[in-house]
Write a structure and sequence with these properties.
The chain has 235 residues and is an alpha/beta fold. The chain is 40% helix and 22% strand. It has helices spanning 17-22, 26-31, 49-56, 68-81, 101-106, 130-147, 163-168, 178-189, 211-227; strands at 2-10, 34-42, 59-62, 86-90, 113-123, 158-162, 193-200. It has a seven-stranded mixed β-sheet, sandwiched between helices. Helix 3 (49-56) links the parallel strand 2 and strand 3.
């Protein structure tokens, strides 16, 4: 059996969480030889997200710092302290399709990472604003120009990791630049990446990613990690 850790980062996602959970292909995964843990990593929700997570039977981690990056790193730490073999994470806002978890996990290269590729997949109408599309293209181009490792969709929120790959990553991001830092660490350590075309839909509820401010933070992280490939001090 392969132990699979499914991580759902949340912040006020009461409108999407129950639907996302119900669409996780747990029975299909079990038939393919996986045991499944569903872990909600919550960034301080003020709505009913935590109540819903508990009712659904999810494990819950209430993160110690503000920001998506802080929560994801705490989830990674929990995974590495467990005996689980692989981790898949997807944003819990209704944009990603949990039905594709099986394909993502089975696409993980040996010792590597699979990244959901929205830009070469099924991008639904109104799922991504033109500003976000252009910004993602520019950031993806900048990432490859600085770090030299191919990536199709830098800002994707759907990743699947082998245990070996997560053990090697060096991360200290607190916010939305976490995906960019994961990519730079893969580039520096030559961790294999496989791009998996995925479906991307319009999100449920209010967007939390700010185009200019967060895009600037992502670009800054790409530049900093080009100069200093490893964080001076992991938090």
């Amino acid at each position: 059996m392969t132990n699979l850790f499914i991580m759902l980062p949340t912040l006020d996602e009461e409108g999407a969480l129950e639907d996302i959970y119900s669409r996780i292909p747990i029975e299909e995964l079990k038939q393919r030889g996986y045991t499944v843990r569903v872990v909600v990593v919550d960034g301080g929700s003020k709505d009913k997200t935590l109540e819903i997570a508990v009712e659904l039977g999810c494990e819950v981690i209430q993160q110690w710092g503000e920001g998506k990056g802080a929560g994801m790193r705490q989830g990674f730490k929990e995974f590495l302290e467990s005996g689980d073999d692989a981790l898949v994470m997807l944003d819990c806002d209704g944009t990603y399709h949990p039905e594709e978890i099986t394909r993502m996990v089975e696409s993980i290269p040996k010792g590597g990472i699979a990244i959901g590729d929205r830009l070469h997949g099924d991008l639904k109408p109104d799922a991504m604003t033109s500003t976000n599309w252009i910004g993602n293209q520019l950031l993806t181009w900048l990432a490859v120009a600085l770090h030299g490792k191919a990536i199709n969709d830098l800002c994707s929120g759907f990743w699947a990791f082998s245990r070996d790959s997560l053990k090697r990553l060096h991360l200290n991001s607190m916010r939305f630049e976490i995906e960019a830092e994961m990519y730079t660490s893969c580039a520096h350590l030559d961790i294999p990446i496989r791009h998996v075309p995925i479906t991307y839909s319009k999100r449920v509820g209010e967007a939390k990613l700010g185009s200019i401010k967060d895009g600037t933070s992502i670009a800054r992280k790409l530049i900093i990690r080009r100069i200093f490939p490893t964080p001076h001090e992991e938090q």
